[in-house]
């Protein structure tokens, strides 16, 4: 089986629509799993279990709800309050558009290939199978109209320009910011409701929000965009050959590693110590280590899996995009509990 066939299969509009439609259920399930683990396993010996369970529920609901609203938008009384940051086309509309495109193509062409014609007719009202894609890709005529039709039903990965790259970075960074802000708001709200808040806890939530957003989301996106922008300029000057989607993925991951993973935690901790702590009346020793409160942990490294998703989106692969709200939700939750390594101040 060809790798290109598999890539076209998972990036076809019908599969993308189904992945997007399952995202809310997966996000809800992830939130429930985190709540169960944090409430009944990780903190089973907590002296105030019921209160902790409630606070976890409020924080998780806020982070997950914000993550969902960020990608799908918010409507109240039929009025759009906020437009979602991810495109979602219901499967019914996708299949209708697919059927119309196939009918239009077949009505304008007399195909000599019965196998190709039968494959197209059979696939009008369902997603394309791997064998369908093989047949269509291999047997479809190579003229301009046929290529346009193929791109319509099985789009190629988008080759983003530098302007489009930074537009995507802005969108992806907002998708990450919203659940982090939601988690912080939910954590502070749970403290207020239960009467357990303090200046220190609020400061920790804000600092962890800054850490999660800068170290795990924003600076990684900036690194990815900067690497792509540089490679595009080098290609324009003919210093390097045009990048294939796979090579582009490698360039993006290199940029993410340099800017986000290595520099992100240092910058986030510096901002926390120099800007956030003074707002809450906390002073630091001049000789205090930059990682004295928050250093990268294995889970932080694991959370950089969303960078692979980001790299995929910027490389033109859309199928991985529905996973981003779930990954960013975890960052939102950790911000909401004011996580400071092994000491959960919330």
From TrEMBL:
Keywords: Membrane, Transmembrane, Transmembrane helix
Residues passing through the membrane, by range: 172-190, 210-230, 251-271
Keyword Membrane applies: yes
Name listed for the protein in its UniProt record: Uncharacterized protein
Record organism: Candidatus Scatenecus faecavium
Lineage, broadest ranks: Bacteria, Candidatus Scatenecus
């Amino acid at each position: 089986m060809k790798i290109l066939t598999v890539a076209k299969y998972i990036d076809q509009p019908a599969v993308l629509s189904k992945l997007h439609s399952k995202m809310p259920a997966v996000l809800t399930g992830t939130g429930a799993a985190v709540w169960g683990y944090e409430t009944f396993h990780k903190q089973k010996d907590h002296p105030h279990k019921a209160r902790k369970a409630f606070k976890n529920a409020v924080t998780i609901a806020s982070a997950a709800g914000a993550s969902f609203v960020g990608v799908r938008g918010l409507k109240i009384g039929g009025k759009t309050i906020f437009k979602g940051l991810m495109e979602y086309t219901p499967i019914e509309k996708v299949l209708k558009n697919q059927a119309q495109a196939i009918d239009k193509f077949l009505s304008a062409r007399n195909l000599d290939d019965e196998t190709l014609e039968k494959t197209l007719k059979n696939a009008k009202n369902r997603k394309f199978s791997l064998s369908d894609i093989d047949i269509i890709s291999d047997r479809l005529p190579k003229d301009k109209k046929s290529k346009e039709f193929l791109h319509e039903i099985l789009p190629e990965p988008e080759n983003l320009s530098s302007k489009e790259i930074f537009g995507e970075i802005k969108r992806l960074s907002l998708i990450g910011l919203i659940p982090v802000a939601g988690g912080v708001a939910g954590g502070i709200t749970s403290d207020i409701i239960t009467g357990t808040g303090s200046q220190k806890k609020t400061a920790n939530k804000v600092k962890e929000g800054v850490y999660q957003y800068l170290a795990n989301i924003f600076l990684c996106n900036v690194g990815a965009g900067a690497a792509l922008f540089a490679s595009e300029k080098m290609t324009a000057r003919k210093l390097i050959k045009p990048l294939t989607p796979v090579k582009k993925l490698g360039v993006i991951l290199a940029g993410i590693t340099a800017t986000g993973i290595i520099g992100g935690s240092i910058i986030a901790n510096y901002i926390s110590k120099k800007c956030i702590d003074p707002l809450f009346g906390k002073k630091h020793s001049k000789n205090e280590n930059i990682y004295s409160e928050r250093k990268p942990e294995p889970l932080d490294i694991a959370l950089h899996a969303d960078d692979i998703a980001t790299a995929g989106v910027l490389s033109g692969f859309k199928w991985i995009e529905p996973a981003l709200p779930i990954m960013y939700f975890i960052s939102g939750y950790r911000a909401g509990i004011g996580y400071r390594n092994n000491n959960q101040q919330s």
